[in-house]
Specification:
Two copies of one chain form a homodimer. Chain A is of the alpha+beta class. Chain A is 28% helix and 29% strand. The radius of gyration of chain A is 27 Å and the shape is elongated.
Amino acid sequence: MDLSFDGDAVHAGPDARERFYDSRGYGRTTGGDLTLAPVETAHLLYRGDVDTVYDERDGSRLDFRGLLGSAAVSEVDFFVYKDLRDRGFYLSPAADDQADFTVYPRGDGPWDDTTAYRVRAVGERTDLAADSLRRLVASTAAGEAVLAIVDEESEVTYLGVDERAVSGSTDHEIPPVTGELLADRVVVWEPPAELHGKGFYGQRLDQAGDPVQLSLVEAAYLAGEGGLETDSGDGAITERGRAVEGERFDRRRRVYAALRTAGVVPKTGFKFGADFRTYGNVESVDELGHSELLVRVLPGSHTFEPRDLALDVRLAHGVRKTMVFALVGNGIEWLSVTRRTP
Amino acid sequence: MDLSFDGDAVHAGPDARERFYDSRGYGRTTGGDLTLAPVETAHLLYRGDVDTVYDERDGSRLDFRGLLGSAAVSEVDFFVYKDLRDRGFYLSPAADDQADFTVYPRGDGPWDDTTAYRVRAVGERTDLAADSLRRLVASTAAGEAVLAIVDEESEVTYLGVDERAVSGSTDHEIPPVTGELLADRVVVWEPPAELHGKGFYGQRLDQAGDPVQLSLVEAAYLAGEGGLETDSGDGAITERGRAVEGERFDRRRRVYAALRTAGVVPKTGFKFGADFRTYGNVESVDELGHSELLVRVLPGSHTFEPRDLALDVRLAHGVRKTMVFALVGNGIEWLSVTRRTP
């Protein structure tokens, strides 16, 4: 049984097909023959199932070391392929450019029409354009879109990526209020009880009845809805926001408004290093549930570094919240990223 | 008893001194009289201990709202002052520019020669130059240097800042090895057992005896120490590192080397969003303890955003490690930043 490498793929006959495809899900069949991708071949070589393959190009023989050291196999792909095999999955190179591997449910294989994960394999230093994550999600009709990040010590971290519809059921009538713009916030000196008590706007200086301090983003939203007046006039709050935060302020204001419109209450996510934490259903601040999401607001053109993603997602997981990225372009797209253990 | 504001400070007589300084630690004494900083006065006004103060400049009377809305008191200072008072501390404006407040141990006050914390109060959008943190630490002879960060909803997060001597007791003789430079790592195909087993260099492909993959930073360090040779020649590893990481690679290599020299084993901190996690005392990888530090490598000129600090420190706390920033300039300075609840 000989395996022959043409520089792109490895070809073998019916014996190899029976042994590697039929019984263990390697490769794909072409007629009665077998075609193996270089990464699949590297795994067979690594395991010792095959000793060497014949290189048609120069008549040499390639062993595991030779193939892994060649340009035909990326180390990142190999480590992800191996790790998923070690976890008991069969997988194949993906048929499109958005993902690298199609992973079948445990027990299934390439002869089944099932998908557990569509995996994109990247190194820890690979820049990840937000757009490429969106495309990975959009191209994943069946199964789950997953990033497999290989760190510099070749450990693999799996992150599930998905669109996230954000919605809640918070809906209170808040009487219009009057506030005073200070350096970095607005104080409502005589707030109606509903402002903080029901709407969960701002923060009381101490207790119920006390003045309520609004953050600039809360104040800008309320002012835009006609719910807040200040002596500083329309636009002063947004101007102040832009002065202290630049264009990030406008993005945050749009995301804040979208969350409120969806019935979700955004509060500062500062303690978690995020823009907002959110509460889906606030009846009253005295009976506040657990906040569900951490939201980071980013421009739609953002490029993620895998390390920053790992940090955000790990923190969110540790505090039992879901990390959501609000990508602001013409509209707002919501991507959740979560820890995964396939 | 009248309090008189000259635009910088508030002055009052012996009655006020007795009532506010002697019994509750507000202000400082000048002869038999009392001088209050605006932030202290704002707190007395807020509590209702004083209704208004006389403004010498225009003959008007200032209430809490008037003083807080004026330029004399920053909201950030007020929220920190109030929060520390609420926690049972007496505190005074600091005598130097590095800190904003000197906080006395509970039960002590400005008449004691004791310090619990030297606190710098900042808003969540204040840029924090690494150098200003170093100066805060350096100027703190007694007590602890603390950052008090006021978020946009006026909650205060306290972070302790300190120099951190990094040292461990790991010390093994590792025989020199030969490796092969792949795209993003070096593989030692026939490693001596000590390389990974004692020195905790790299990662085994699977089990003891397998090839060991070294990260580029590990490989560059070993090559620099004469412990690794590759066919690619001297300098190729560092060149590759710079190609994939830019100048960050040189900073990481220096910090890696400093940690190894100090007897500490750095391994990747990727899963924690950091550069390294560290082990102070590795006898053998089979009896590995808990890693103690998360190290983020930064240029000495770095400017922190409070939100990023909050994220790093919160994560480190959640995984029971200490966050350490390695600031690389001519030398390396190590600053630990930890969660504090005064």
